[in-house]
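Help wanted!
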Amino acid sequence: MWSDTEPDLPRDTRNAIMKRLTRLLSPLLILALVIGSLPAIAAVPAADQGLVGTTTLLDAQSSQQDRDKIRRVLAREDVQQQLLLQGVSPAEVENRVAALSDAEARQMADRLDQMPAGASVVGALFAVFIILLVTDILGLTDVYPFTR
Amino acid sequence: MTGLFSTAGRQNARPAGVLALVLTLLLLTGCATAPSLSPATRQALPSMALNEVVPFHGQRDYQCGPASLAMALEAAGLEVSVDELIPQVFLPGRDGSVQPEMLATVRRHGRIPFRLEGDFATLLDELAADHPVVVMQNLSLPAFPQWHYAVAIGYDLPAEELVLHTGMTPSRRIGFARFDATWARSERWAFVALPPGELPADANAESATRAIADFETVQGSEAALPAWQALAERHPDVATIQFALGNARHATGDADAAMAAFQAAVNADPELAPAWLNLGIVAADQDRLDTAREALSRAAALPGPWQSRAREERQALETEDDA
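Answered by r_m:
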């Protein structure tokens, strides 16, 4: 883009301009993101004006403190991002996150990568075929139906 | 060449190797012994149970999660297809479905997921109560996991067999020992999906309260009210449950019944400040000023995170009185 408009600028100057631009833009972007997420964070305590809610009491009893509210909102946003990366359609992602409980959202935000994903009964790698065959016969595993 | 590979040694090498392999595997995985059921448990259970109403959906590709959910939800009285569930629970990037989303999807469809806690006997109890149980197994060894969801629909005590809708096989019979070995690797993860108002056979008060509260957050108080009602009937002396029932009744516009529930909550636990506070707020709304004044004073006298709120409410009531 720069070279189109000002082809004669030396590389050093161009870099300097870029650097100054980045330095100007970054704080602005951070500010915009923070302000953007404020309504979501502020909305949670506002809901507490009526009766003391059931989940509020349960959280207090299980020593999950109020300060967690911000983390809850962030956890849900985090899960949403991760689901999109895993190929969930954008149209579904919001509904899927909304159906999670706070604890589940936090679990997924913390360790989705390590979570077991129930998949199928398709066969295992050949490298472990023999071991699993033996364990199947011993009744420790259930990989190959023909062992029974 | 060492002595092990000499002519005499070579003859013994193969059996010795097999023995070593078997012993190592046994050490690694523990023995597949049948789960122990106490004689009392056996006595209490019917010797056989089979829920033949549970429909079967074969899984395609990696979709045992959606297939298991479809079976459990249909058994709970819902018309829902596997194809409809796939975009709601399947994770393409993982070629599978994760546990929290299995529970969340049940919630989305207006059924309450109750996690089973405990052991093999708990599973049999649910099956005896005709509740199909979604279980997570690791069919393979911990080192090369093969995670899988299946639906348990019955058991046969004399034969020591469990009946599972699994993979492409409806009503497959599998020995208790083998099943428990594969199930234990998921830390015996399992749940039942029930319509609001029905409870698991072994509902533990605390975890059932959490399950219904999470459901209420997603589906609203009106949908959750029958579940609170049922849980409060089963555990009439648990203050938290009466408190939750009061909130759900209040949210659905039944102030008198809500006050009765909050009253039951403080009878069960006079130290439960939020119950006094909510009782006071609702009573004040209903112009039951004596009740309101007493309840708010009790709440204001209890130390804790709700004390300041209780004092404010009491103050507001006094000022209103004077005016």
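OP: Thanks! One thing I noticed: Strands of chain B lie at 48-50, 97-98, 112-115, 133-138, 147-156, 161-166, 169-175, 190-194.
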